[in-house]
Amino acid sequence: MPENLWTFLLLTCVLGGAAAFATGRAIALTWRPFWQALAYMIPLTAAVRFLHYALFAEDILAMGPALLGFAILLAIAALAFRLIQARQMTTQYPFAFTAAGPLTWQARGDEGPR
For residues 85 and 104, what is the distance between their CA atoms, to the nearest angstrom? Predict the structure, then answer.
C-alpha cells in the first residue's frame, strides 16, 4: 500500500486519473487501437511517481505503489476508451449500431451487445 493514502489518492487517482482519462479519450477519438494506451500509461506512471518523489519525498523506485498506480491509470484509460468508442459507434454509424449500455453497442437486428 502507498506510504500516504491521501497523497496517493490526490496525485495518482485525481491528477493522474484525469490525464489517463484524457489519454484514453484521445486514443478512441483518433480510432487508434487500445494497446497504445498501455504504452502511454508507462511514462504517465513514471511522471506520477516523480511527483510523489518531488512533492512528498516518497521513494521513487518503490515497485508496489508504481504497479498499483499503473493498474489504476490503465483502468481509467480503458474506461474512457470504451465510453468514447461506444459513443462513436452509435453516433457515427446510427444506421448499423444502437447503444446497448454506456460501454457497449450492438448491431441493429442483433440480440447481443459487443
Answer: 9
Written as one string, the DSSP assignment of 42-66 is: HHHHHHHHHHHHHHH---TT-HHHH
Mean pLDDT of the 4-10 span: 90
C-alpha cell at 75: 483502468
Strand partners, 107: 97
Q: What distances in angstroms separate CA 102 from CA 20, 21, 54, 78, 94, one per listed residue?
A: 19, 16, 38, 13, 15
The residues spanned by each domain of the chain are 5-107
Instruction: Give 31-89 pLDDT, tens digit per residue.
Output: 999 999 999 999 999 999 999 999 998 999 999 999 999 999 999 999 999 999 999 99
Confidence of residue 114 (pLDDT cuts 50, 70, 90): low
Cα-trace Rg, the chain: 17
Could you give the dihedral angle defined by the CA atoms of residues 28, 30, 31 and 32, in that order, rounded to the nearest 10 degrees? -90
